Fold E-phenylitaconyl-CoA hydratase/naphthyl-2-hydroxymethylsuccinyl-CoA hydratase.
Amino acid sequence: MPVMLEVRNHVAYVTLNRPEAMNSLDPESIADLTEIWTRVRTDPDIRVAVLTGAGEKSFCTGTDMKKAPPPTECMAATYLRDGQPVLPQMKMWKPIIAAINGYAVGGGLEMALACDLRIASSNAKFGLTEVKVASLAGLNGTQALPRAVPQAVAMKMLLTGEMISAEEALRYGLVSDVVEPSGLADLARSYAEKIASAAPLSVQATKQAAVLGLDMPLEHGILYSHLLWGVLRDTEDRKEGFKAFGERRAPVFRGA
Ligand SMILES: CC(C)(COP(=O)(O)OP(=O)(O)OC[C@H]1O[C@@H](n2cnc3c(N)ncnc32)[C@H](O)[C@@H]1OP(=O)(O)O)[C@@H](O)C(=O)NCCC(=O)NCCSC(=O)/C(=C/c1ccccc1)CC(=O)O
């Protein structure tokens, strides 16, 4: 399988599984990802996802440039019927953690930018190298990178195609943690299980408030988040959370 899915303890582990091609995205991987993200978004048993690459060299190097098929129709037809590939399926209120285990290049970095948490192994490298192959970081890179790191750094990366190291990515805030390669999967699992043990509706509403709030004036964002708090106020899980606290026991959340 070009992409593997395993669900354990409410966590979906999504692994790009073409290490021999640096986990680049061929048409089969894109088809698998479309199906898998739909499952992650809709399966009530799944509360959070971890996206990573097989092996220790590469998270994902973007489009498989050796297998990209020539277009069979004009771009207008594709764009107006299907929209963008890959990223729209990742749009969901369940959190996604990128566990970046090596190169995150081109569309690979763009997928990582579409995730909510980014953690990396110390050998990871990050680049939007599309200008070097006569293309453009057209998934979200030209928009998301300048919002994720200082603009001067983003412009250098976008215009020169130069890669940065894990240490630089940590310094610029592109990732929150850098660990030895052998510790990456455990760290991803530990964050994912923490998120999965929290109340699912609360986690999703929190992501929605933070993500949508970024594009709102502050006062609107604050008011919107208060409405979301109100949406959660009457949930069974909030009652359970407060009750469990009083009874000094772990809460049992049901997403209701
Ligand atoms: C990452 C590298 C610098 C690593 O170099 P290294 O020397 O360590 O390893 P290699 O020998 O180069 O790689 C091993 C093996 O893997 C194959 N490989 C690696 N990456 C790709 C790839 N992206 N496509 C196909 N094959 C790949 C490599 O050929 C080797 O195979 P072998 O010879 O052993 O058979 C280095 O690999 C590197 O620079 N890779 C390319 C990175 C890159 O340029 N990525 C950008 C691709 S373009 C893109 O992602 C786009 C996304 C997009 C935008 C908008 C809408 C949809 C998608 C743009 C686009 O598609 O136009």
